[in-house]
């Protein structure tokens, strides 16, 4: 597979996942929780780094740089999704209480505290709003991030792409 082919796949998969997330939100009315929003940012990160690699068509070093950046985005997304899945499986009495909305947090707290607060999650993140085949949407998202991590990590090591070839 060529560098551009590799990055095309790396762009298409998260783009489809984001399109599906927006379909769920705007067509079906599923409101995303703060952790879902952060997962979208990580998914967009994978897509953007792969899109840049697709458009640039770099040589071997550039290929690895874009693949590393996409891998870091995918791993960050996997960590957030894993946290989300963990929250879903907490007993009801251990779920953090609902906190203020993201807009309010951004207005009154420094960014680092906003991130820490959101990543702790709350009751809005601990309810299953949707599932497919009995698996929650955050669990599907985690699986998607793990697959993207493996795909982009393969690109870091040049697996499945023609070495030294760029379009």
Tell me what you see in this structure.
This protein has one domain (3-156): DsbB-like (Bromodomain-like). The radius of gyration is 17 Å and the shape is globular. Helix 1 packs antiparallel against helix 6 and helix 3 (60-88) packs antiparallel against helix 6 (137-156). The chain has 167 residues and is mainly α. It has a two-stranded antiparallel sheet with strand order 1-2. Helix content is 68%, strand content 2%. It holds the Pfam family DsbB. This is Disulfide bond formation protein B.
**Number of discrete domains:** 1
How large is the share of residues in beta strands? under 5%
CATH superfamily: DsbB-like
Give the name of the CATH architecture.
Answer: Up-down Bundle
Structural category? mainly alpha
Number of helices: 6
Gyration radius over CA: 17 Å
Annotated CATH topology: Bromodomain-like
End-to-end separation: 11 Å
Binned, the helix content reads: 55-70%
| Mass-distribution shape | globular
Largest sheet composition = 2 strands, antiparallel
What is the CATH class name? Mainly Alpha
Strand line-up of the largest beta sheet: 1-2
Q: What's the overall average pLDDT, rounded?
A: 83
Q: Flag low-confidence runs.
A: 163-167
Order of helices and strands: HHHHHEEH
Count of strand segments:
2
């Amino acid at each position: 597979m060529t560098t551009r082919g590799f990055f095309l796949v790396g762009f298409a998969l998260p783009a489809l996942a984001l399109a599906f997330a927006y379909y769920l939100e705007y067509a079906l009315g599923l409101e995303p929780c703060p952790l879902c929003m952060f997962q979208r940012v990580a998914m967009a990160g994978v897509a953007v780094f792969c899109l840049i690699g697709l458009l640039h068509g770099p040589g071997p070093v550039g290929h690895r740089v874009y693949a590393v950046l996409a891998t870091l985005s995918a791993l960050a997304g996997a960590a957030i999704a894993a946290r989300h899945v963990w929250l879903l499986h907490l007993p009801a009495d251990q779920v953090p209480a609902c906190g203020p909305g993201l807009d309010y947090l951004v207005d009154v707290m420094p960014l680092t505290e906003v991130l820490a607060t959101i990543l702790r999650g709350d009751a809005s993140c601990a309810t299953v709003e949707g599932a497919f085949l009995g698996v929650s949407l955050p669990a599907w998202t985690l699986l998607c991030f793990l697959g993207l991590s493996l795909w982009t990590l393969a690109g870091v090591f040049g697996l499945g792409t023609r070495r030294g070839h760029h379009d």
